[in-house]
Structure formats: structure tokens, C-alpha cells
Design a protein that fits this description.
The protein is mainly beta and 341 residues long. The chain contains 1 helix and 30 strands. Strands 2, 3, 5, 28, 29 and 30 form a 6-stranded antiparallel sheet that branches. Strands 1-13-12-11-10 form a 5-stranded antiparallel sheet, with no helix packed on it. Strand 28 and strand 29 (322-327) form a beta hairpin. The two termini are 35 Å apart.
Length: 341
Amino acid sequence: MLTLIVMTLLAKEPPAPPSIKSFAAPYPTFGSIERLDPALDAIIAPDAKLEKVAEGFDWSEGPIWIKKGGFLLFSDIPPNNIFKWTPGKGVTLFMHPAGYHGDRADMKEPGTNGLTLDKKGDLVMCQHGNRRIARLASWAEPNGKQLPVADKYDGKRFNSPNDLVFHPSGALYFTDPPYGLAKNVDDPEKELPFQGVYRLDAKGKVTLLYDKLERPNGLAFSPDGKTLYVANSHPPRQIWLAFDVQKDGTLKNDRVFADVTALSQKSKLKGLPDGMKVDKKGNLFATGPGGVLIFSPQGKHLGTILTGEATANCAFGDDGSTLYITADMYLARIKIQTKGF
């Protein structure tokens, strides 16, 4: 069933709720940069500052830079919103409802999570409450239709699709933890006995690739598309796995790329392995304990952008040399010396 979402995306966009504050340049700075290896200086300049561009969100997630329009879209999951941030204009409401179109009131995280664009430029969304992947056709127009892309595996409804990324082949890879269910992993409406990593091909076929992570979350490909990284947001096992991507799109040779379980438990830093992005040189910008951890392609922890908050995700924006960060109630950014892939 198609759900018609009426949006005003042109001259009269709905304002953000009063609780949300957009800052004007020069933006206030906060946090710090932890430098663990000299190689980080080539990625983030020694004098780089973390800037706060907006605040007042419940749990910000899924940022994506829209190059054609010069703005950022991102999810605020609990209130079921997608917001738009435009330089010089600030935050406006892009879509509500975003990830759930029912009338239940017991869902803590009903909104959209990960967002991306397909080759046509359509917005593709992970919808927690609707428990599906959906595409917003002609989303740059005032009216857009949400089209279901995938909502089941083996005849059973997904838990709550969380993050997604397109492979160079055009296939869509996504994760499916239980965070969008009212009672999480113990929800009686949970139909799948595992939390999966999936592949959706161009013909609409969904393939289960991996089911051995407790809470699969963010995912990203290496620049050559031959390696898939997947985060596990599970307090007892806070890891990122790396997989070899086979010619048929399946995964092989799962291995631990990085493990921050001990670091997290010892330091009590806020946050778990969550969303991530990869730059053109293969460095990972992975949200986790403390903020955004930067790893070399070999898995060496070079340093961390310390936000002081549980940090959900990040995205490259502007000309690719700005990293936008969703950190709990904040939308932030920092200039980098590399460029996003």
C-alpha cells in the first residue's frame, strides 16, 4: 500500500519545533580531538574544531548530504521526524511522520534511521516503525510517494531496518536490529529469531548474509567495494567486523576489524559502535565510545573526535571535506583534510 506524504519543500518549509535551536556562524565549538597516532594530523588538522550547528533533538541519526540542493537531511528517531539543515538558514522540518504511520504510542524509536540516495537520486530510508526499507519517489517535489522497497525475509517481517548502503554493483546492503520494536528483542511481534545483515538485489530479492551479530548496526564499504564493515552495538561485544565481498554479493571471511569492548568498559565513555563512513583513502570514521573513532584501513585506531555524547552517525558533506555528526541532541560538523568516499 502506498502512503502519500505531503511535504512543503519549497519556499514555505515548516519550521523546526521551538525546542530545536539552530546556530549562526561563527558556530560555537565543543568537544576535543584525541590524537593517538601522528597519522591523524593528515586527516584532521591540529587546529580543527568541532562545531555545533544545531541542538535540541531527541536522538539524531542518519545524516546524508544532498549535493544538488546543498543541504543535510537527518533523522530524529523518537519524534518520528526527518529534518533538513541548510547553511545560513538552519533547521526546518522535512518530513513527519517519517518512519511510522500507525497509531501506537508505546514505541520509543518509531522514526527513520539510516538515509541514503539511490542512483536515480531518490531518498531511500530505514523505517523503524513501519519495519521496512522505503523509497521516496520524486522526493524533491512538494508531494512524494513512499514506495516499499523491502519489508520481509522468508515471509517474515523485519525487526526494524537500521542502516543501509549501496554497493557499487547497485545492490543495497542493510542491517536489522530490534531497536524499533516496542519491547526490543523481547517484543512479541518480533518474527525473526535473529538480527540479520541483508542484501537486496536489483530484482527485489532479499538475501540473508549474516546472522551472528547481536545488534548489527552501521555498515560501509571500502572504496573498492571489496570489503564490508559492520558495527555491532552490543555492550558485551563492541566490535566492527570486516567481510570479503564475493562476486555474487555474498560475504566471506568474517573477522574482527576493531574491538573497543575493553576501552568502553574501562573508560565509561558514552556510546556504542554505530554508524560509519569511509573516506577515499579507506580510513573509517566510525561512531562509538566517546564520539567518532578514526581507523586506518588496517584497523589501527588513530584518534577520536570526542563529542562528550553518545554519537550515532556521521556523513561527509559540502565538497566532501566536512564531516557532519549526529551526537544525541546535537548536529555538529568538523572540517577534515581528506575527502569522503
